Amino acid sequence: MTTQLADIRLLLLDVDGVLTDGSITYTDTGEQIKSFNAKDGLGIRLLMDAGVNVGIVTARVSGALRHRCDNLGITLVFDGTSDKAQALASISASTQISLAHIAFMGDDLIDLPAMTRAGFAVTVADAPAEVKTRAHMITDRPGGKGAVRQVCEAILKAKGLWETSVSRFLS
Question: How many other CB atoms sit within 10 Å of the CB of residue 18?
Fold first, then answer.
């Protein structure tokens, strides 16, 4: 697993159930509210600062997600797409990063087409068994509760970049 993670150049993330706990909250006016984990956000920033690209592939469209991506500097956003395998192929072609160097992190059945085509598949602790059996890595944490941070750290450690990432906070 460590060798595969060391070769990752792009981490693609589903949103609901990965970056969030899967809850979808609506206001009385129909506005969608999402909660994101700050530790996941720092992990994403550390990964991007180390030269690993991060992108989003999700079936839903959400203003809250757009704000979060803007905040983190994520520009590779495929939202409103239910064909995640096609999105993965398009992203691979446009970035010129081969599937072997792309990790896809999903949490449910809709993510399986992308997970099974990506070079490295990751899922969360609270994913269904059908998803877990097809993942190279299952996080200890559930979606929205630090699972993305765990993957970011694992990639940085596999690349030998974790200590460098941490040291910037110690000086």
Answer: 28
Distance, in Å, from the CA atom of 50 to the CA atom of 156, rounded to the nearest integer, reads: 8
- φ, ψ for residue 137, nearest 5 deg: -140, 135
Per the listing, tokens 């896809």 go with 104
pLDDT at 1 over 80: no
What pLDDT, on the 0 to 100 scale, is given for residue 32? 86
pLDDT tens digits for range 134-151: 999 999 999 999 999 999
Query: Average pLDDT, whole number, for the chain?
Result: 96
Q: Given CA atoms 80, 84, 88, 94 in this order, what sign does their dihedral have?
A: negative
Q: Identify which of 9, 101, 26 has the alpha carbon closest to the alpha carbon of residue 60.
A: 26
- Among 10, 55, 63, residue whose Cα is nearest residue 32: 63
* Domain enclosing residue 6, as ranges: 2-167
**Predicted TM-score of the model (pTM):** 0.96
Q: What is the CATH number of the domain that holds 132?
A: 3.40.50.1000
Distance (Å, whole) CA 154 – CA 100: 17
Q: pLDDT tens across 117-127, in order?
A: 999 999 999 99
Burial class (CB in 10 A: 0-12, 13-18, 19+), 162: middle
User: How many distinct structural domains can be found in the chain?
Assistant: 1
